[in-house]
Amino acid sequence: MAGKPKLHYFKGRGRMESIRWLLAAAGVEFEEEFIKSPDDLEKLRNDGNLMFQQVPMVEIDGMKLVQMRAILNYIASKHNLYGKDIKERALIDMYVEGMVDLNEMIMRLPIHPPEEQGAQLALIKEKTTNRYFPAFEKVLKSHGQDYMVGNKLSRADIQLVELIYSVEELDPSLTANFPLLKALKTRISNVPTVKKFLQPGSQRKPPVTAKDVEEARKIFKF
């Protein structure tokens, strides 16, 4: 019997958080080995565990997978969260790429110098309300179904709800004009595996703080 997946990353959200969400939603228990110093990262590299010398890395099913999208695609495929055919997978990929674009902006917000964060936050809010959330709301409205693709839970729903939570942490009012997205968030949040992940004490990571950024800078030297 294969062991639990092991996630290698620093103790923060970053690009591993979507992987945590997807594993948790699929009901997969996982372990985490946190990178706490440059030496920890260098050991992973020297041991040949990082194909492109960078994390996130997930040990799963006898593989050491890197590259966030590859990891997410594998997990989604394995747990039937990636559509029923090539057309549905194409739609899921398209929606997820948009989510990643906005999520990357949110993740990078604490990295900006304090004097630039106000302008960056304004840009995130503008793109959320005028570009990304209207597009996702339109998808749900166009077919009137409970889920983004094929009326079945997929990684698109899980990653969209993760994104909605992140956006609401910045400003809860940003979802006010998107009732279908709010309904999706409620629906997915009540899926038992997701509900468990949202409880205090789970492996879900809190919002990034200035201290987290400094710790990451020391490890990854950016």
What does the model show?
This protein is an alpha+beta fold and 222 residues long. The protein has two domains: 98 residues, Glutaredoxin (3-Layer(aba) Sandwich); 105 residues, Glutathione S-transferase Yfyf (Class Pi), Chain A, domain 2. The protein is built from nine helices and four strands. The protein has a four-stranded mixed beta sheet with strand order 2-1-3-4, covered by helices on one side. The model has no long low-confidence stretch (mean pLDDT 95).
Entry summary:
Helices cover 57% and strands 7% of the residues. With 222 residues, it is an alpha+beta fold.
What is the topology?
Layout: E1 6-9, H1 17-25, E2 31-34, H2 38-46, E3 57-60, E4 63-66, H3 68-78, H4 86-108, H5 114-143, H6 155-170, H7 179-189, H8 192-197, H9 210-220
Parallel strand pairs: 1-2
Antiparallel strand pairs: 1-3, 3-4
Characteristics of this structure?
222 residues, alpha+beta, Glutaredoxin, 2 domains, four-stranded mixed beta sheet, 9 helices, 4 strands, 57% helix
**Number of H/I helices:** 9
The largest pleated sheet is described as: 4 strands, mixed
Distance between the termini: 39 Å
Sequence stretches where pLDDT stays below 50 over 5 or more residues: none
Give the domain tally.
Answer: 2
Strand order of the largest sheet: 2-1-3-4
Strand content: 5-15%
- Here the CATH topology of the largest domain equals Glutathione S-transferase Yfyf (Class Pi), Chain A, domain 2
* Category from helices, strands and their pairing: alpha+beta
User: What Rg is obtained from the alpha carbons, in whole angstroms?
Assistant: 18 Å
Shape: globular
Mean pLDDT reading: 95
The topology string of helices and strands comes to EHEHEEHHHHHHH
Which architecture of the largest domain does the CATH hierarchy give at level 2? Up-down Bundle
How many beta-strand runs? Answer: 4
Task: Report the top-level CATH class of the largest domain.
Answer: Mainly Alpha
Classify the helix fraction into a percent range: 55-70%
